[in-house]
Fold this protein.
Amino acid sequence: MKKIAPLLAVLLAGCITPPPPPPPPPTGQLYVALGTEPFWRLTMNSAEIVFTEANVPGVQIAQPTPPPIIGVAGEIYRTPRISLNVVHGSCSDGMSGRVYPDKVQLSVDGRAFQGCGGEPTGQP
């Protein structure tokens, strides 16, 4: 029996599957990310990703939402103009004191931005 127990443990471990990746948000729901200095906002649904920068009024960069690349810490979305890396981990925007569930790293037309994303949970 002592020889069977380790073998059984190895066989059962091979049967465990990782959880499925999160689905993209439905078309009617948005994922929102934002940052400061400079102030920017990104919205994403299953159809498109839209980036706006506060100091450039009226200018938006929109790209079709690609399927996510599932990374170790979150999801990655890459388009020709926008690269979004969502890292699941607590994030404060540094100004309002709100805490968000995700840290966001963003590249738009080669410019780097950092901020927070998801639905804020309130004060830290």
Observations:
- The chain has a mean pLDDT of 82.
- The first strand starts at residue 31 and ends at 35.
